[in-house]
């Protein structure tokens, strides 16, 4: 693959996302220096999401593909997007996520100039829906190693971009997993198939809290069950205690983020007083 010839397919899954999808779309349209296409898979929304998508059609200048129909959940919709994709590289940017910078996608694509790299990932920031500029948790993918998947660790999935031909080789997302199909997919790609990856030590994507994987105790119960199932299926030894250790690390991430913001605020206040 020659330098500069990489095309990226960005897949966005939506369902009644009229309140947030505009931010996602605007962030895609702002991306510079990359050949991309945007594929929006809508699950037959009834809240005006489809009208919003149509209103942006001309701004895409032919780089938008979209469908609106019933599906069997988020991962079925992602698979539909992959089937429509024509890019060399595929990534998922959900309807409550957005690129942090206009060069975010460029940074994610750059490592693919090395043909041995099969996937890239970076860091992620969580924000509250009512305050998109204030990070409440910084998700660093720096510690990730395939061996840590037995603890439930994965690189930040919204930052994970992978060559499309490799997705075809290892298989699509498994829709029998309700919430943790991303974990099972990454377990297959990174632990079983040992795809070579590149970590970018930057926060490039922002995610609103409140999505399917961040909703209450019931979602955590399902995630635990599905992590156990995936690990057993792929011969990865783990148990409930081992998988629970990642929650300790999540608490650390939240506390670290608060301390960093507090320090940043003190520094700003100190400069303002001078």
Structural summary, described in words:
- This protein is an alpha/beta fold and 274 residues long.
- The protein has a single domain, classed as Spore Coat Polysaccharide Biosynthesis Protein SpsA, Chain A.
- The chain is 38% helix and 23% strand.
- The protein has 8 helices and 9 strands.
- It has helices at 21-29, 49-56, 74-84, 104-109, 164-170, 181-192, 216-233, 240-273, and strands spanning 7-14, 35-42, 64-68, 89-92, 97-99, 119-128, 131-139, 161-163, 197-208.
- The longest helix is centred in the last third of the chain and has 34 residues, at 240-273.
- The radius of gyration is 19 Å and the shape is globular.
- The termini are far apart.
The appropriate CATH architecture is: Alpha-Beta Complex
* Alpha-carbon Rg, integer: 19 Å
Q: Would you give the CATH topology?
A: Spore Coat Polysaccharide Biosynthesis Protein SpsA, Chain A
* Uncertain runs: none
Derived from helix and strand composition plus strand pairing, the structural class reads alpha/beta
Using DSSP, what is the number of strands?
Answer: 9
Largest sheet: 9 strands, mixed
Strand content: 15-25%
For the record, the CATH class is Alpha Beta
Shape: globular
In whole angstroms, the N-to-C terminal distance is 53 Å
State the helicity in percent bands.
Answer: 25-40%
Estimate the mean pLDDT confidence.
90
List SSEs in N-to-C order: EHEHEHEEHEEEHHEHH
């Amino acid at each position: 693959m020659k330098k500069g010839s990489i095309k990226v397919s960005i897949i966005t899954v939506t369902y009644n996302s009229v309140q947030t999808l505009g931010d996602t779309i605007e962030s895609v349209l702002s991306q510079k220096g990359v050949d991309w296409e945007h594929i929006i898979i809508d699950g037959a929304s009834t809240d005006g999401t489809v009208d919003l998508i149509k209103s942006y059609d001309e701004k895409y200048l032919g780089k938008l593909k979209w469908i609106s129909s019933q599906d069997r959940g988020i991962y079925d919709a992602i698979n539909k997007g992959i089937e429509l994709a024509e890019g060399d590289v595929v990534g998922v940017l959900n309807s409550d996520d957005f690129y942090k910078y206009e060069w975010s996608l460029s940074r994610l694509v750059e490592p693919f100039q090395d043909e041995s790299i099969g996937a890239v990932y970076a860091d992620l920031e969580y924000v509250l829906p009512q305050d998109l500029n204030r990070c409440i948790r910084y998700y660093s993918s720096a510690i990730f190693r395939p061996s840590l998947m037995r603890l439930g660790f994965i690189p930040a999935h919204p930052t994970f971009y992978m060559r499309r031909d490799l997705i075809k080789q290892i298989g699509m997302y498994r829709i029998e997993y309700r919430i943790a199909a991303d974990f099972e997919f990454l377990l297959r790609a990174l632990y079983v198939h040992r795809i070579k990856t590149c970590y970018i030590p930057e926060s490039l994507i922002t995610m609103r809290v409140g999505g399917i994987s961040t909703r209450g105790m019931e979602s955590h119960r399902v995630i635990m069950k599905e992590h156990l199932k995936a690990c057993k299926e792929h011969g990865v030894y783990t148990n409930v205690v081992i998988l629970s250790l990642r929650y300790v690390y999540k608490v650390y991430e939240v506390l670290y983020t608060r301390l960093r913001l507090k320090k940043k605020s003190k520094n700003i206040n100190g400069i303002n007083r001078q």
